[in-house]
Amino acid sequence: MASSLHSESDRPTPDNSKGSPGKGEETVPSNGNALGVALSNDEILRYSRHLVMPEVGMEGQQKLKAARVLCIGAGGLGSPLALYLGAAGVGTLGLVDFDVVDYTNLHRQIIHSTADVGRKKLDSAVESLKAINPFLNLQTFETRLASDNALEIFRDFDIVADGTDNFPTRYLVNDACVLTGKPNVYGSIFRFEGQASVFASEQGPCYRCVYPEPPPPGLVPSCAEGGVLGILPGLVGVIQATEVIKLILGAGQPLIGRLLLVDALGMKFRELKLRKNPDCPACGHHRTITKLIDYEQFCGIRGEEKREEKAVDAAIPEMQVEELKRRLDAGDDLFILDVREPHEYQICNLGGYLIPLKELPNRLSELDSSREIVAHCKMGGRSAKAVQFLRQAGFSKVHNLAGGITAWADRVDRKVPKY
Amino acid sequence: MPKVHIPTPLRQYSGNQVSLEVQGATVASVLSNLIARHPELKRHLFLDDGKLRSFVNVYVNDEDIRYLQKEATAVGDSDTISIVPSIAGGRETARKTMICAITLPRYYTDCCR
To answer: What is the domain class of A67-305 according to CATH?
Structure first.
């Protein structure tokens, strides 16, 4: 397609040294024409591989530069998302994250490096992005996205890409996107499966059309069944970045009304049709969601946490790791029950008898209720449930090892690895 | 026979199979036969009153059954029924329990990062 290599001659030449639209220069909506957004010679060279593609070209690259995309989360999904959008020349990138880089993040959150452990994710992300593309205009929001700030944060962006890790925020982002009319580029992951779609409620379904209700809390797989294949958010996050770029360029067929299912283990990609629900409370004919609500309550988390605390903290006899050590050294006859999964046992163990929690009901006969049992898991949560269960089953001499094998590694034996 | 595609979180209850061939002429009868074969799946897919859990979506091929005939949707030998959970990765709560909030009903809360 024919394209001019020069900015519109009747517009003032913007200061492109930082690559961001100068004050007073128009920024343009993502569907829009790119008037007023010029590319410097450096940028032209940088993006040359885009510019020679008919699907992008000068006009497309100008659209990318004029675009303003908000990335919610600078973690697993947010890392590849922001990195690729930045590399592609999306002019303004907003980043929302209040978290700090943790060592265990590094296996998948590739925008952060080992030296960043302990730093704010936003600081680390900004540095990585600037190193790749100094022309970016980066706006950071070090806050938890919430009902009292989402609409205002969203206001200055054209597209929202959701890379968050919990249901309340998913629904918050959805509703805020519907209320502000912005497309929500969705990606989510679990272990080795992912989903991606574009919820652009003016043209297609929103997230609530597909999943009107969240699962109740306490819908929780075991810690051992959790975990995530490090590459997975990479795969899905780049799919999200692709969809963002397609929306900006107006190219290709976006995932509006389509749910892409990614199975990384089978390397299978399937697609399901998503329909707009005419009765959707957020985007349907009779909308009842006209403002942002309390999403933690919507997802039942607030009440559930209180109930959980009451249920679990009430009268679970605990033993501290120091006491366990003392009693073992003294030769006390204690039966150590390990309720973790076999692969965790291989990482580290206290020599305990392994019965994974979910098998406990079927393997009670392997335990001797006349012996004093100390149950442990990784951090004390699963084993608390085990103790509760055993007490209900009539075992009276049962303790939960508070803090689990992690506490043992911290306070008794530093040679035991933590995971 | 129609195939049922089992999502990751449920595979441990379906003998770790990704996809199962299950007899049935409607979605309801296929799911019923599936559960008969793998009873542990039942509480993860259905409420006590027999209704499908609201955050579990079921598709025949690529169409959501809510927009077909719901559980009465007819299925043939070449059809695939997909069970599609809502997923949202996993975040640690203040109590250090990881809420990997996927579709499934109560396993057990856990403590991990």
So the answer is: alpha beta
